[in-house]
């Protein structure tokens, strides 16, 4: 089987979902050939730097603008029309790639690539089945296009919301956002913590801000360091080197045992041995935490999609809200001292986890190819 996955590296989530599907496919379907394409980068590397670079800079420096754009594109056709014109122009080169690779099925994990595939099908230039995997916990109109054959969404509730937006319910599959199979393994938390020079018997906080190390992580660390309870911290800076250096300096002023980590492929291990995750509410991070049955404390949600993710978490008592994180000491202290609340949140996480999501998506792929 040949599978083409189109994504966009706007943050780590979209690409991580693509990588998860690739790994599940290779494990479940012997001799399969899976190709992941960072779509805009493939079409034009300069354009990728301009668009994705501007996007990442805007959510770092002016997140409120992103929220305005999110709401505007949800309710107004003006920017949507511009996006469709962009996708129309870009889809021509994508078609060349598709024809050359000749996949049995195409998956998209980003609205841009989903739009391109729909346009090609509308023009009768593409006849391959396609699946869109939505990487958050609430729908947005940028994902919804008339010629998508199947949507994979995170929850049953999200599936119902898609139907209200006019999507045929037979095309919507609430299988969950796919995560890497490593998150499904029961790792030895005692060994993991020991290898990190941490105490397996201590309460462990995991602090992170996604692959980009975004949000007020340093401020959160300063706050939780002041909590008069004995616990330890794993703080992950991601690709943010400035944050990494700042955390290393701050640890020297703290009496909390802390392990500082830069970018890491071992997030599954860290989640398996943590008792509480303090993080931004990105879609992939949420799915990984739910599968790890790990309660969340969320901060610095980007206006728009991450705020919608946060609403989902808070609605079902999967997380507590720390706002910007700059005044979170009391909330974290209260939660650590309340094991009943933590256990309830952990149980709720387990009920919303979809550990079979990856295999279910593979079954969907097989059925659509047939």
Automatic annotation (TrEMBL):
A GO cellular component annotated for this chain's UniProt record is: membrane
Listed SUPFAM superfamilies: UDP-Glycosyltransferase/glycogen phosphorylase (SSF53756)
Q: Keywords in alphabetical order, please.
A: Glycosyltransferase, Transferase
UniProt keyword Transferase, yes or no: yes
Q: Which residues form a coiled coil?
A: none
Checking InterPro entries in the record gives: Diacylglyc_glucosyltr_N, Glyco_trans_28_C, Glycosyltransf_28_UgtP
Name the principal localization, coarsely classed. Answer: membrane
Superkingdom per UniProt: Bacteria
- Pfam families under this entry? Glyco_tran_28_C, MGDG_synth
Q: Where in the cell is it found?
A: Membrane
Q: Give the transmembrane ranges.
A: none
Q: Which residues form the Diacylglycerol glucosyltransferase N-terminal domain?
A: 14-179
> What residues does the Glycosyl transferase family 28 C-terminal domain cover?
204-352
Keyword Glycosyltransferase listed: yes
State any single GO MF term.
hexosyltransferase activity
Q: What Enzyme Commission number does this protein have?
A: 2.4.1.-
The GO biological-process annotations, alphabetized, read as: glycolipid biosynthetic process
UniProt lists the family membership as follows: Belongs to the glycosyltransferase 28 family.
Q: Which named protein is this?
A: 1,2-diacylglycerol 3-glucosyltransferase
Supply the source organism for this entry.
Clostridium putrefaciens
Gene behind the chain: ugtP
